[in-house]
Amino acid sequence: MGDVLSQSEIDALLNAISTGTADESVFQKESAKEAKDYNFKRPSKFNKDQLRTLEIIFDNYSRLISSFLSGYLRTSTTVQVVNAEQTTYQEFSNSLVNPVILSIVDFSPFKGQILLDLSSNLGFSIIDRILGGPGYGIKKVREFSEIELILIERILSQMITLLEEPWENVAEINPSIAKIETNSQFAQIISPNEMIALITLNIKLG
Q1: Pairwise CA distance, residues 54 & 84, whole Å
Q2: S-S: 50 plus which of 27, 46, 78, 96, CB 3.0-4.6 Å?
Q3: What is the pLDDT of residue 41?
C-alpha cells in the first residue's frame, strides 16, 4: 500500500495544482506506467513458462519415442523437439495436408483432447518398415488402406501410452486414442479461433 497523505499535504497538493506550480515529479511514478497492446482476436493463452514446461515434457517424450521406434522398427531413429508455440486451431488445421494421420487422443483426467498429427509420408515409411521393407515412403500420394490404418493405429497406441512417464511430475494421466481421422475436414473438434499449444517433433528413420 502507498504512503497516506495528511490533510495538510492534500491541501498543499491541491493548491499547487490550481496555481500551476505542482512538481512534475509527484506524477512521475504514475506516468511511467505504459499501456501494452492486447490482441483480442488472438488472446494469449499460454505464457512463456508454460510453453517452456511443455517443451521440456515433450523433449523427454521424444527420447522415449526414439528408443521405442528404434526397437520396434529395427532401425536407427532420432526424434527431436523443433519448437513449442501457441497458435489458433484454424491455422493448425489449415496446415494439414490430405491424406492425414490425425489421432484424436482422450487425455484423461483432463478435459478436452489432444491431437497427434503424423505426416503421411512418415506413416508410409513406418508401414514399409513394419512389413520388412527398407522404410521408404511413397512418391504418389494416395489414401491409406484398411490394413495400413490398423498397423498405424497399433504403433500410435503404444506411442501415446509413452506420454504417461514424462507427464508424471505434472499429473497422472491415462491417454488413449479416441479415433483416427485421415481427412483434415473432419478434424474441426474445437472453435477455429481457439488458441492451442503446438508442439512440433522431427522424426528421422534410418
Answers
A1: 7
A2: 46
A3: 64
Q: Which three cell numbers stand for residue 97?
A: 495436408
The pLDDT of residue 42: 63
Contacts with 130 (C-beta within 8 Å, 6 or more apart), sequence order: 73, 151, 155
C-alpha cell at position 164: 504417461
Residues 6+ apart with CB under 8 A from 87: 195, 196, 198
Give whole-number Cα distances, 98 to 61, 154, 157, in Å: 26, 21, 21
Judge contact between 124 and 138, C-beta under 8 A: yes
**Cα 30 from Cα 33, distance rounded (Å):** 6
**Average pLDDT for 189-201:** 88
Model's pTM, two decimal places?
A: 0.76
- In the structure grid, which three cell numbers stand for residue 20, read together? 500551476
For 59-131, where are the E strands, in sequence order?
A: 77-88, 101-106, 113-118
In 3D space, the residue among 55, 194, 198 whose CA is nearest the CA of residue 114 turns out to be 198
Average pLDDT of the residues of the chain: 84
Query: Cβ atoms within 10 A of the Cβ of 40, count?
Result: 5
Model confidence at 163: pLDDT above 50 = yes
Determine which helix (DSSP H) or strand (DSSP E) holds 128, and give its type and residue range: helix 120-130
pLDDT at 1: 47
The label of the residue with cell 512389413 reads 131
